Amino acid sequence: MSQSGGEMPQTALTRIDLLLVASMVEHGARVLDVGCGDGELLRLLSNTRNVDARGVEISQKGVNDCVTKGLSVVQGDADVDLADYPDDGFDYVILSQTLQATRNPRKVLEQMMRIGKRAIVSFPNFGHWRIRWQLAVRGRMPITENLSYAWYETPNIHLCTIKDFVNLVDVVDARILRAVAMNSSGAQIRVNAPWWAWNLFGEQGVFLLERQKKS
Amino acid sequence: MTDPSPDTHSSLAEAAQPHSQVAVFDGSQPLAMTAGVSLSPFTIAYQTYGELNADKSNAILLCHALTGDQHVANSHPLTGKPGWWSALVGPGRPFDTQKFFIICSNVLGGCMGTTGPASIDPTTGRPYGLTLPMVTIADMVRAQAMLIDRLGIDTLFCVAGGSMGGMQVLQWAALYPERVFSAMPIATAARHSSQNIAFHEVGRQAVMADPDWRGGRYAEQGVRPAKGLAVARMAAHITYLSDEALQRKFGRKLQDRAEPTFSFDADFQIENYLRYQGSTFVDRFDANSYLYVTRACDYFDLAGDYGGSLARAFSGAKTRFCVVSFTSDWLYTTAESRAIVHALNAGGAPVSFVEIETDKGHDAFLLEEPDFIATTRGFLRGAARARGLSEKGGA
Predict the structure, then answer these.
(1) Which CATH superfamily includes the segment(s) B6-191+301-387?
(2) What is the CATH number of the domain that holds A60?
(3) Which one of A60, A72, A76 has the shortest CB-CB distance to B371?
(4) Predicted local confidence at residue B10, as pLDDT
(5) Burial state string for A52-85 with b = 16 or more CB within 10 A and e = fewer than 16
(6) pLDDT score, position A12
(7) What is the CATH number of domain B197-293?
């Protein structure tokens, strides 16, 4: 079982991440949460923003938890099953803490931009100074509160830095409408701070994306 | 209880006088059939459980599978066995009879009291046999809709069923989307595959090859094609189970003997089991009905009815769906369920999909599968909340 929002340990930071993602969604929108785990974000969205909430989740336990909550969730794999969704079916497609667990992040993001008018992606920043420090000084693959797996059993097979992600946004022909980086206590890093500062001090990145207008 | 002696063929007795409620539709209410003819008069035999609430918003229609019947949660009038979905229907069960009004009717073409080939054709005074027009899944559903009208129910809270029952669920959602608040198509497909048709054809040929079938006129001649029907059932039964489950349950174990007899006796337990399945089946099911209901499945192709697009069958559907498949079901595979889910997604319908892990094969939908039961309970609870049923405290 690789992609699942439920794979991330539920720390205070991931909770703040959910609230931040939710705040980017307009009321009454049609939303698809890819890797929706036990449906916490979907429930938050339906309760507070009255959205038409749908989910995709790979684990049967996650799907069952969601269905029990009355959510519409399909058992599926982000790498495979997004292809079956029609163009422009949703206002927002959300990938919360799941990008790093996909086999092909580029394809997944391309599919998201096709299915949704907008996409919201949140992910752990592998460029954070603490991670760099562990690799540089200890010479070992980093293990942190948010990335708590040993390298040989981690589901997180495609980790990236905030800068890497900004580059991917370009590659898939999308543009950034809003970006937020949070430090380990969940506080947002100053908006006018340069990318290098975000990349060094942001523990999480949250991006609101839109398709590049065809010129 | 009817006399179970083989000569009276008890299933034919149920066809004429079922241990069920019946709704008779006379000449003023003919059934327009897919075959282009109208059927009149006709009868639907059905069972109900629980009570319809004041605003008639808690009715659930359960659709039975190929050789199932309306006796979903009571002991069977011919076999005395518990109803076929006792695992899911009853007080405190997911289809809670204390909360919901549950309806299950015998399908058109069946042999448990609804008009089928064993019923008497009023124009001839003889059983219809093969003169009954070919029945489709859509015909079954239109007849059910007339029963629901008769019961004074406008919108069904849920329509649910597995296998051929699941086909009826899909057909309901396509024909009457505004009358179906939620739907559970389980272990089913939106069309019969070539392999599905092939297995059914083997069964039909087994029936027709029995000299006692008599071109379908066996009842009038005081015989019945029991051997042919038993073989049909034996073949079909294999398709309902998985290789793994058969291996676990029977393996190569011998039946009441230490050594093989080197004869064509039922040396192996699996042989004995299949022979038993075949012989008990013929005591409760009519051979011509078997021909009709298998054919109805074969002709089922929902996308075909909507210009080749399954998505069009469900376009703009507001019905909440929960599609369920089972990992070891090779008769109606997960891929078939996913095709339904894709179409529903394309049509924008609210859909959930769960694949239940089990080694019990197609029949898993009839069994106590904890994950399946939890899914069903959760889906109905969510739908009941959306329907405003929980606040009213049920029945």
Answers:
(1) Alpha/Beta hydrolase fold, catalytic domain (3.40.50.1820)
(2) 3.40.50.150
(3) A60
(4) 64
(5) bbbbbbbbbebbbbbbbbbbbbbbbbbbebbebb
(6) 65
(7) 1.10.1740.110
All residues at 6 or more sequence positions from B172 whose CB lies less than 8 Å from its CB, including other chains: B61, B63, B141, B144, B145, B156, B159, B179, B180, B183
Query: Chain A contact for B382, CB < 8 A?
Result: yes
Q: How far is A53 from chain B (nearest CA, A)?
A: 9
Q: Which B residues 312-351 touch A at CB under 8 Å? A: 320, 322, 338, 341-342, 345-346, 348, 350-351
Report DSSP letters for B52-115, one per residue.
Answer: --TTS--EEEEE--TT--S-SSS--TTT-PPPTTTTTEETTSSEETTT-EEEEEPPTT-SSSSS
Domain annotation covers residue A168: yes
Count of domains for chain A: 1
Per-residue pLDDT at A39: 94
Residue pLDDT, tens place only, A118-144: 999 999 999 999 999 999 999 999 998
Q: How far is the first Cα of chain B from the last one, in angstroms, to the nearest whole number?
A: 31
> For chain B, what are the domain ranges?
6-191+301-387, 197-293
Segments in chain B below pLDDT 70: 1-11, 390-395
C-alpha triplet B136, B137, B138: angle, nearest 5°: 85
The sign one gets for the Cα dihedral B117, B118, B121, B127 is: positive
B163 catalytic, yes or no?
Answer: yes
Whether residue A89 is contained in a domain is answered as: yes
Contact B348 A76 (CB under 8 A): no
Q: What is residue A178's predicted lDDT score, i.e. its pLDDT?
A: 94
Distance of residue A209 Cα from the nearest chain B Cα, in angstroms: 23
Place of tokens 């929706």: A36
Nearest CB partner across the interface for B350, out of A68, A72, A75:
A72
CB contact under 8 A, A74 and B353: yes
Amino acid (one-letter) located at B195: Q
- Least Cα distance to B326 among B313, B336, B318 occurs for B336
Give the residue among B203, B205, B166 at the shortest CA–CA distance from B294: B203
Reported pTM: 0.90
User: What is the domain extent for residue A72?
Assistant: 5-210
| pLDDT tier, A212 (very low <50, low <70, confident <90, very high otherwise) | confident
**Closest Cβ opposite residue A75 in set B345, B355, B385:** B355
**B331 near B240, Cβ under 8 Å?**
yes
Chain A nearest-CA distance from B300, in A, is 23
Nearest to A95 by CA among A186, A169, A200: A169
Residue B9's pLDDT is 57
Residue A48 placed within a domain:
yes
Per-residue model confidence (pLDDT) at position B11: 65
Q: Is residue A215 part of a domain?
A: no
* CB contact A87 to B (< 8 Å): no
Annotation marks residue B337 as catalytic: no
